[in-house]
Design brief:
Length: 465
């Protein structure tokens, strides 16, 4: 998710039609002229080339993600993880302890323990450190549930309010479930279960499906001011109060899927299946876009099309069906492919590669900047679709290579290492900072872990035919 206060604006297609409007309540930032088209020599999908890309991705994972972030971001004074870093990896102004960042960093450290045995000894203490903070500080011992955010000393602050948002709750559960998978620490699983039960008790909508999103500290649903024409927003986020969001629900799908991997609870499975159907059948629509906001009964509110969320959701739906173990529903396969194909058709940079920020569903991109998380989610899903459809088309493997070239050349910092937050259409950094509460090591870390594994699996399977 990008941290920009998008107002409810016209722009995205609804489920009843594909009309897209052009009115925007926020100006797109000025960007430099597009760079000239860059030539690239495409490699064939052979074992040798798969392994070549896998080695490069592993190098980037260690050089630009793990080494700069860990243990630099471990806060040994206040607990949890520190988020703010400049381009040179010097501490920036603190924004306190954000539930989303804390959960994400706990998840990343846990995945390294699970998937990189040579780093296990280094990362197990970091996982325990994250679990301790989520348990001792982020969890509200008076009312239950995870705080949206706290200051560095673990105190409630107006910057975050004392409210609780399902997006933040989701990532705390996500990190804890992965921590249990990595360490078998019962405290991590018990807290993840408690988080799910609290969230489900206070926020699940039994009538319409899905979840209410913004709650008071004691778990009451906050109702927005719908009759005034004024849209209240959740602190530090794009979520309009009193409405459902695509962003929260795709990440609830992600976190509850992670929890179901380690806890085969019947109610949890029902919620995962319900969320999958909501993301696929209500949020996602033809010709391959996702509406961003909804009323509580799932009527879509027009807005822009976020290319990065489109491609990310494709991966998350596939991941969920893998964990559920009932095979891939043709409806899921079809919608996932539509989402990626649409993003390539409307949000892809034919000059340098990479996905733009957003635009109207049937029109040109409105914001041609490139945010780090969009590029890495794109890398991940392009290879996923190559694995599925590589025998039919070379489109996805060519796009993967162009995306990889873009990330290597423009999104990573060759001097100080790490990943730039935002680059312009010309490939130059627009925001060069390396860390803040919305920029953890999660999107890029996950993508590189997945890409290396998938490439090595493809190499074992042999070339696409």
């Amino acid at each position: 998710m990008r941290n920009k206060s998008w107002l409810l604006r016209a722009g995205v297609v609804t489920a009843l039609g594909f009309a897209s409007c052009l009115l925007s309540a926020a100006q797109s930032p000025a960007v430099a002229p597009a760079a000239k088209p860059e030539s690239i020599t495409y490699l064939a999908p052979t074992k040798e080339n798969y392994l070549k890309f896998a080695d490069e991705a592993e190098g980037m994972l260690r050089r630009d993600i793990l080494t700069p972030w860990f243990p630099r971001n471990v806060d040994n004074e206040n607990g949890g993880f520190y988020s703010g870093f400049t381009r040179e990896w010097k501490p920036a102004r603190s924004e306190g302890k954000f539930s989303v960042f804390q959960g994400r960093m706990t998840w990343v450290a846990s995945q390294i323990v699970i998937r990189r045995p040579d780093l296990r000894e280094q990362f197990v203490p970091i996982v325990h450190h994250g679990v301790d903070f989520l348990s001792n500080v982020m969890w509200d011992k008076q009312y239950g549930g995870f705080f949206w955010g706290l200051d560095d000393k673990g105190q409630i602050t107006p910057f975050y309010s004392d409210g609780k948002h399902l997006y933040g709750m989701s990532f705390c559960i996500y990190g804890l479930a992965a921590a249990y998978q990595a360490t078998k620490d019962p405290k991590a699983l018990e807290l993840a279960q408690a988080g799910f039960r609290w969230m489900d008790q206070h926020a699940h909508d039994a009538k319409n499906g899905g979840y209410f999103e913004w709650l008071t500290r004691d778990g009451k649903v906050v109702v927005g001011e719908k009759d005034t024409g004024k849209i209240q927003g959740v602190p530090l986020a794009a979520f309009p109060i009193g409405y459902r969001s695509m962003n929260t629900h795709i990440h609830l799908l992600e976190s509850l899927t992670q929890l179901y991997e380690v806890w085969k609870d019947d109610t949890l499975r029902q919620r995962v299946e319900e969320l999958l159907a909501i993301v696929r059948d209500k949020i996602s629509v033809e010709p391959g876009a996702m509406n961003l906001y909804f009323t509580n009964d799932w009527r879509a509110i027009p807005d822009h099309d976020s290319y990065g969320h489109d491609v990310e959701a494709t991966y998350l739906m596939e991941e969920t069906e893998d964990v559920l173990g009932h095979g891939h529903d043709p409806k899921t396969e079809r919608m996932g492919k539509l989402l990626v194909d649409h993003a390539l058709a409307y949000g892809w940079d034919e000059n340098l590669g990479g996905f733009f920020q957003h635009g109207t569903t049937m029109g040109k991109p409105e914001d041609k900047q490139k945010e780090w998380w969009v590029q890495f989610e794109g890398l991940n899903v392009l290879l996923l679709l190559h694995e599925k459809y590589g025998s039919q088309t070379d489109v996805y493997f060519k796009a993967f290579q162009r995306q990889w070239n873009f990330i290597k050349k423009y999104q990573t910092d060759p001097e100080f290492h790490g990943v730039y937050e935002m680059v312009g259409e010309d490939g130059l950094p627009v925001v060069a900072s390396k860390g803040r509460i919305w920029k953890a090591a999660y999107h890029d870390g996950r993508a590189l872990l997945n890409v290396t594994a998938r490439l090595r699996r493809l190499a074992e399977a042999g070339p696409a035919k």
